[in-house]
Amino acid sequence: MEVKTVATFECGIIEKEYQLVGESITANFPEGFPDAAIKVQMDFERRLDEVANWKSKQVLFSPYMSNGIFATYFACLEVDEIKDVPEGMMALKLPLTKYAKISCSNKTVGQGYNKLFAWMGENGHKQKQYNDSCPIEIFYLEEDTEEEVVEILMPIQ
């Protein structure tokens, strides 16, 4: 039996823009998380078929913003074009941004953040503030598995 490694903790830099459609939740931070994130993702997964022009239903994008008191967390699909946004959902167009990226799993997200911030410090990268960007968690959904690949993207200056 082959053992699949999902928490590689490989770091790198990417530059990308995103067009997303999905739902959001706002909750107290940090005490409301990860429960709020799990809730919005599960609610959104029941509505995936309502989103038009999606690139993949197996890749869930979760951008978020937090000020240390509360956080807004999204569950979205990437789309080719933003149009026909379903009722109760919203569209996000995230501009071209340079991100520090790490690959981990849904069971090692905390460890992933620690390793990503350490790697950023070692390589002279500073987190960009929220004025035109935000961090993104990307979940690669798989059927019948407890551990899935997750990428964390952190905007950098």
UniProtKB/TrEMBL annotation:
Write down the SMART domains for this protein, in alphabetical order.
AraC_E_bind
Could you name the domain of life of the organism this protein comes from?
Bacteria
What SUPFAM superfamilies does the database record attribute to this sequence?
A: Probable bacterial effector-binding domain
Q: Which Pfam families match?
A: Cass2
Which residue intervals define the domain AraC effector-binding in the entry?
9-157
Q: What is this protein called?
A: Effector binding domain-containing protein
Origin species, per record, is Sporosarcina highlanderae
